[in-house]
Amino acid sequence: MKNKNIGSDFDDFLKDEGLLEEVTAMAKKMRTSRASLNRLLDENDTSLTLTTLAGAAAALGRRIKLELTPV
Fold first, then answer.
1. How far is CA 52 from CA 3, 13, 17, 31, 65, in A?
2. Do 11 and 20 touch, CB atoms closer than 8 A?
3. In this structure, which of 46, 55, 62, 70 has its CB flanked by the most CB atoms within 10 Å?
4. What CA–CA distance (Å, rounded) separates 26 from 22?
């Protein structure tokens, strides 16, 4: 029995989940690829930059507010 997720690509996963159009639209708004958006949504990926996060926020009509507070 073949696991349907092993060997399938990200587009197939998005199609199966009914998210392909939504993710494609967000990536277009961010002027990036769906693969980049996948990295943004991956909680285990530590390479997220503030620039990428700000782009995602802007695509959602939001902005980033970063605050440093004393411990």
1. 33, 23, 24, 10, 14
2. yes
3. 55
4. 6
pTM of the model: 0.62
The sign of the CA dihedral 29, 57, 47, 66 is positive
Calpha distance 25→5 (Å, rounded): 23
For 20-57, what is the HEC assignment?
HHHHHHHHHHHCCCHHHHHHHHCCCCCCCCHHHHHHHH
Closest CA to 41 of 27, 31, 29: 27
Q: For residue 48, report the phi and psi dihedrals to the nearest 5 degrees.
A: -60, 130
Model confidence at 6: pLDDT above 70: no
